Amino acid sequence: MVIVRNRVTGQLKEFISNEMKGKKVKVAIHKTLYVSDMKEIQNMLNILMKKLRELLRKNGKLDLNNAIELEVELVGPRLKMHEKLMVLKIWNMNSANNYVFKTKWNNFVKANEKDLKENTKIRSVRFSYTKSFALQLHI
């Protein structure tokens, strides 16, 4: 796999490492945000499970498979931690199982709507105290 390094990627990694003391920053998925992902009525971000790279540790996967919802932090495209925890869970559909960020997704969209674009990378970040994700604009 080739990882393209650019100014935005460097700033994000520096922010996560230096400011937030995060580690193990890796791309979980390169997702296109559709209009439906941004609609207020949705209030969730749907991510196809089969398209994700390693998103969670085994114990996190077991929790989600046992219908336990995980509270996670989300860093927005302005390199700022969203003030409300997001709920990550598995959503079982007839065609496939998906991960969804739910509950506070609308708040995140409203706070970042000028910066959210169609092509966004979601990075998985490990902090000592919690599981977190960062949305990075793909430029």
UniProtKB/TrEMBL annotation:
Predominant localisation class: nucleus
Localisation per UniProt entry: Nucleus
Pfam families, sorted = At2g31720-like (PF03754)
Q: Name one GO cellular component term.
A: nucleus
Stored SUPFAM superfamilies: DNA-binding pseudobarrel domain (SSF101936)
Q: Which intervals of the chain form a coiled coil?
A: none
Gene3D superfamilies to which the protein is assigned, alphabetical: DNA-binding pseudobarrel domain (2.40.330.10)
Q: Supply the alphabetized keyword list.
A: DNA-binding, Nucleus, Transcription, Transcription regulation
| GO molecular function list | DNA binding
PANTHER family, A to Z: B3 DOMAIN PLANT PROTEIN-RELATED, TF-B3 DOMAIN-CONTAINING PROTEIN
Task: Name the chain's protein.
Answer: TF-B3 domain-containing protein
What does the organism's lineage look like at the top? Eukaryota, Viridiplantae, Streptophyta, Embryophyta, Tracheophyta
